[in-house]
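Why do we care about 3D structure at all? Because function follows from shape, and shape follows, mostly, from sequence. That is the central idea of this module. The next example makes it concrete: a single protein chain, its amino acid sequence, and then its structure expressed as tokens.
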Amino acid sequence: MGKNILMGVTGSIAAYKAADIANNLTKEGYNVTVIMTRGGMQFITPMTLETLTKNKVYTDVFEVYDPTVVEHISLAQSADLVLIAPASADIMAKAACGIADDLLSTALLAVFPETPKLIAPAMNTVMYQNPVTQRNMATLRELGYDFIEPRVGRLACGTTGTGALAATDQIIERVKEVLGD
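And the structure:
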């Protein structure tokens, strides 16, 4: 395998599951590089994902990691697949509108059009079903993004409904399917 996965981790309580996803993808032989949003870092640390992936985790569009590399371009264009898991309503809105105000949203604009892009949303049911969120998802589909739909489950807010992050094994299988592995 050895294919490169650029994984976005955003501000959802389900961010803690990103560790399991990244770990399993790494065990499957993928090279996983993570970009975390500020919100994602409120739920899980970069160090956790660095330890599991054995790669630097990127967090800031203005941090110079290597002065010879334009990080958002390099990260985006070296990806064989982009996976955002969990994907918040915020990152989906930014991607749908072309807003580039953090490293992940900036990198998404630099991904080659033919690179597969998978989004695994995770949020409150009302947020997920909100017409704005649904419109953003429809726009992203038109732009070539594919979705790993959330499941019905008990959510962090205490309600039960659609919005729980898809199961880790479902996400891994979808990645393998899209990459032909």
